[in-house]
Amino acid sequence: MTKIDQSYIQDKFVEYCKVNTRSDEQSTAVPTTPGQVDLLKIIEKELEKLGLKDISFSEEDSYLVGKLSSTTNKEVTPIGFVAHVDTADFNSENIRPQVHKNYDGKDISLKEGRILSTSEFPSLNKHIGETLITADGSTLLGADDKAGIAGLLGMLKFLKENSSIEHGDVWVAFGPDEEIGKGAARFNVKRFPVEFAYTLDNGDPGDIAFETFNAAAATVDFHGTVVHPGEAYGLMVNAALMASEFIQGLPASEVPENSRDFDGYFMILSNIGNVDHAEIQLIIRDFDTNSFEQKKKLVTGLVGKLNQKYGLNRVSLKMHDQYRSPGDLIKQHPYVVNLVLHAYKTLGLKPKVIPFRGGTDGDFISEKGIPTPNLFNGGANFHGPYEYVTTESMALLAKTLVEIAKQHVLLNNHRDESPLKRKY
Ligand SMILES: [Zn+2]
Asked: Average per-residue pLDDT in the chain?
């Protein structure tokens, strides 16, 4: 049996980092920037080399998918892995990955006077002796999520070279525009016929995240009555004061600056007003579906109370859901999580169920009926010039994905719940 090919993973990672795939919030194109298609086409060729089947790229959703065919006669449902090709909103031109072999644990001087220091980023100490890859200081690196892509390819290469290892159909999907929350929303999952999947986006080895926020946004309008202040007695209704009364009605402690882990919050985005008219924009976030609904009810209730007090339907509310946590769906299918926990334990990784305090591709894909938790990609300090990853972490990711595919063959017939039936 051959080993996980670390130099292959490293080469692919460095090559892909150099392609500028920064996504663009302002663009309405699919995908939002052409560099993303360039990289998808490069990966498409790689999938062909690795012998994948049913490779396809669709211009409609800009997703590239392919399948590593099953090597077993046992009954196993198809599983999938997902990584995104775009990078965050930070300089991505002429990215020059720096490879520091046998990292000695010392600070690293980057361009523009930046220093990647162990005092500021103590997690570097975990990687002494490994091959550390950084940007040169003038750009981001793009480990988010090219480390996920490189790890995925490492898994495919290993399984191809070791065809005696039994696994079911393993699908892979590479998509655009994750950083701006647009890519996976468009993904036509008919092209991805898996029972469940995992995103490989951020996180540390051993992490699994399947609960993210439920998210809603609201605009509240307040209409006052303007009269001369000298003759205002019993007549004036001040919209700006109504707006502040509304804010006073929200729980003061449930704000982002007071929230962490599984806490939810209300956040006032803007509060503009005068006597005549005021407008408040806010967002609501909560991991728990019930308390998410309660938070929305509180807002509706406050609007009702103010209307009762001031009459004439002076306060109007527009509220809509933005995205849903996949937590409820995934909790109904504990096998999807247990399989990963089992693989982690087999590899000696310490499993950690973590909250993901933001949206992910997995939210959108789960909403389309495919339970999709997030695992990890092994990088750190994402979205800026101090980003780094080690070759060893990406190889560990590849090894973990191999283990998940192997364990799925062993555990599939012993699950407590029956496999999820999907209309592909
Ligand atoms: Zn990402």
From this structure: 94
